Every structure is written in C-alpha cells, then in structure tokens.
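Many introductory courses stop at the sequence. We go one step further.
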Amino acid sequence: MDTTLDLKCAKRNMLVILIVIAASILLNITANAQPPEQWKSLKGDVNLFIANDLGRNGYYEQKNIAALMGEIAEEVGPEAVIAAGDVHHFDGVISTQDPLWMTNYELIYSHPELMISWLPILGNHEYRGSTQAVLDYRNVSRRWEMEGRYYTKVYDDNGVSIRLVLIDTTPLINRYHNSTTYPDVDSQDIDAQLKWIDKTLNEAKEDWVIVVGHHPMYAQTKKDEIEQKDMQARLLPILQRYKEKVAMYVCGHIHNFQHIRRGNDGIDYIVNSSASLARKVSATEGTVFCSPSEGFSVVSATKQQLCLYMIDKTGNVIHRIERLKQ
C-alpha cells in the first residue's frame, strides 16, 4: 500500500470538503443578506456607523462584520465610524506599538470605504491597559480621531447637523475604582467630566444630539446591575435635564442589541451589539426590541428625521429606531 499516495488523496479530499463548506456558508450569507440597492435606502444627509466590542483578533464574527461594514459603506457613504469602546479585548494595549493595533484594528478594518474618521471612546477593557496609549494612537493613525477621553464632534451636511457627545463612562462606575486591574481609573476627575457634559449639552444647537458612552443606562444583562445604578445616579439627571435636545443615548458593553424606553423623558436608550462575539438577551422593563445577533448600527439623519438601523451579521436591518422633529 502506498501510504504517501493515500495521504495525498486524503489531504485533497479534505481540501475539497473545506471548499464546499466555505462556498455553502458564503452562499447562505449572500442569500440572506439585503441586496446593495436596499442598503442605499439607509442613506440620509449625514450618515455614521457605530461599532463596539470589536477586539477579537479577527476571530468569531469580527472579520465578517468588518467586511460587511465596508460593503454597506460603499452604498451609504458614512462620514465616520463611532467606536464605542472595547476595541481591544482583553487587557487593552500597553503602547501605540502594541501588536494588537494590527490584529484587532488595522488589518481587520482595511476596506477602502473604512479609511475614514474613527471616533473612539474608552471601554472598560481599554482601562485594563494603558488608556494613554489609546489616546496617543491618533499620532500614529490619521483615521483614529480621538480628541480626548471625552469630546464632542459636529457633522453638518446639506444643512443637517448632528452633535455627538462622546464620553468616558468607566470612571463613572464605582466598581472600577480602587482596583489594580484598572490602573488609570482613579486618576480621572469625574466631576470635571460631568460638568463638561452638562455645559456641552446646554450649548448644543444642532438638529440632533446623540450621547455615546460604553456602559448602558438601562439594559438586560448578567453583568453587575450596580453599574447601571451608578450611571443612573451620575449621568441620567444630566441627560434628563436636556431631554428636549438628547435624542439617543447609545452604548455597547453588553454584546447584544437592545432598544429601551423608560419613563417620559423621550430619550431612546440603545445598546449596540458586539461586532465580533454576541451574548444572549431577553426583554426587561421598557424593552422595545432586543436581539442576540452580532452586528453594528447605521445612523442617518435628515432635517426632519433621525434613524438608527441595527444591522445583523448577514447585512439585514433587524430593527429601526426613528425620531421625527415635532
């Protein structure tokens, strides 16, 4: 018996099997995804992507969703990608030259249409490493437009304006303090940030205002619910003070899609799913929609309408949140 020939045949057969499986998966994804002409319908005057909880070195759904983001960007033309924290699992980065910048970010989000402004905020996993290195990466990558631990950005096109208020939520949560796991938290001035948020919202005059943080105000989660209590104690009163201006509070952290409305403040509380690995979810008080799908979101605005579309990993819109000018 020619064992060398048998081994070659076995390898060839395995290769054929793998090719068939890959083709089947690709065919299934293509069959279920929305065609590009439907993606075009998501486009407004100002368009943005939101992605978070990314950093899995390309594993799980990260590469697939990154490619999908690029394909949809070809049709929608986003002005920026809001990276709402945890670009780097699990222990952040230690410097601007950390290899994770390549395996979590640069080599993954390489589609030409994603070579646009990225607006990152810090997540709890960034706080496990050097948050200063995350801030300093703007000196390395021209698309990493992180202006500070918290900052604001205005996009104005065709007479339509959106103000993004991008904040740093990890220091607002007590359990991250006094911990060697999160070495940079205790040096942050919570009161200074809250005063800045209040002042920024007070002065906002744009058509639409979206506040973006990493941690949820409300969410169904197996994580410590005390995190939400801290957010509600520190940040919620400010958002409610400007409820006539703030249309949405968008976050990540929980690794699934959730849309929640509570009380009568009129603000949509949105959890954006992980763009790499999602978790199970169920309804909670105020749940309008929830899904355990991986994915990302598209925000589009016109003068009269602000929409957030939750996109699953096959490219389908699974939920639409619409705000209309009164």
